[in-house]
């Protein structure tokens, strides 16, 4: 019958399409420094995608859409983020509430939280071939510390354990727009995201604008070292998502 003659080729085409989406092409991974001793990075078959950006830059909005899209196209995904380790996240939260830790200690605390997630969430998921989406990565931690005067060489050394992601997207949004979005969402500003510990201004609104300006400058500087993609985060969520999908498709195909 004519139908059975035409069916097999079209099915074949569909299967091929699906297969090219399902299996991310394995590309070499590297650590920024020594990495984790004894780890064979060739066993890391998945992809690590980091989404960076200030409070209110749209990370959660974009990540939710990306996860939906990736899962719908057959990829297993896991999400990680700052202060989410099982090891120290509660203690870190408590320490921040009280504003009791010195800068270096706080930096080490965050690095511990990161290392725990790297070892126990990120690397096992990559070994299993999953896509790991990081809601912020070491660049935010470095930028926060750099703005507070922590030594850059010391920080680079500290984060030498980090795996270089397959893609890093920095959602850039003007501080003036960030403040509007954060207010609309939470009706208040966060003490730390406003950099109130730095004493830039007594007025939280003013401090937020200054602090986020410093963070943006630092991110631009870090971008020159680490080469991540700066994404214009002031467009519509749809337009941003379209760009991210296109870039991630290239990553999955091993072309980026
Ligand atoms: N592209 C965008 N344009 C306008 N508003 C946005 C955009 N992306 C996110 N928002 C809104 O801004 C607020 C902060 O977004 P969110 O995704 O929670 O940011 P983040 O996770 O980076 O803090 C939310 O109320 C969200 O609906
Ligand atoms: Mg968020």
List the helices and strands and how they pair.
Blueprint: H1 2-22, E1 47-53, H2 59-72, E2 77-81, H3 89-98, H4 103-127, E3 131-135, H5 138-147, H6 152-158, E4 167-172, H7 175-186, H8 204-226, E5 229-232, H9 237-252
Parallel strand pairs: 1-3, 1-4, 2-3, 4-5
Helix pairs in contact: 2-9, 3-4, 5-8
Magnesium ion binds next to helix 2.
Structure explained in plain terms:
The chain is α/β, with parallel strands linked by helices. The protein has one domain (29-252): 3-Layer(aba) Sandwich (Rossmann fold). 54% of the residues lie in helices and 11% in strands. It has a five-stranded parallel beta sheet with strand order 2-3-1-4-5, sandwiched between helices. Helix 2 crosses helix 9 and helix 3 packs antiparallel against helix 4 (103-127). It is globular and about 50 Å long. 32% of the residues are buried. Residues 59-60 line the site of magnesium ion.
Task: Provide the descriptors you would attach to this structure in a database record.
single chain, 256 residues, alpha/beta, Rossmann fold, 9 helices, 5 strands, 54% helix, disordered N terminus, binds adenosine-5'-diphosphate, binds magnesium ion
């Amino acid at each position: 019958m004519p139908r059975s003659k035409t069916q097999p080729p079209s099915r074949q085409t569909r299967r091929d399409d699906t297969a090219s989406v399902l299996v991310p092409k394995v590309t070499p991974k590297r650590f920024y420094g020594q990495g984790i001793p004894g780890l064979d990075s060739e066993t890391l078959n998945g992809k690590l995608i980091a989404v960076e950006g200030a409070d209110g830059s749209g990370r959660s909005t974009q990540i939710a859409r990306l996860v939906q899209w990736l899962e719908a196209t057959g990829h297993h995904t896991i999400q990680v983020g700052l202060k989410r380790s099982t090891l120290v996240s509660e203690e870190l939260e408590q320490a921040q509430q009280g504003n009791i830790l010195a800068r270096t200690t706080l930096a080490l605390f965050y690095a511990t939280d990161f290392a725990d997630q790297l070892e126990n969430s990120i690397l096992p998921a990559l070994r299993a071939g999953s896509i790991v989406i990081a809601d912020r990565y070491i660049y935010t931690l470095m930028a926060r510390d750099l703005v507070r005067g922590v030594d850059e060489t010391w920080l680079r050394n500290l984060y030498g354990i980090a795996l270089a992601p397959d893609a890093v997207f920095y959602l850039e949004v003007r501080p003036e727009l960030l403040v509007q979005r954060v207010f609309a969402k939470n009706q208040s500003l966060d003490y730390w995201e406003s950099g109130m510990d730095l004493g830039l201004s007594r007025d939280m609104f003013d401090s937020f604008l200054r602090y986020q300006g410093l963070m943006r400058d630092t991110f631009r500087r870090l971008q020159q070292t680490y080469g991540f993609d700066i994404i214009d985060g002031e467009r519509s969520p749809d337009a941003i998502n379209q760009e991210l999908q296109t870039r991630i498709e290239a990553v999955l195909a091993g072309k980026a």
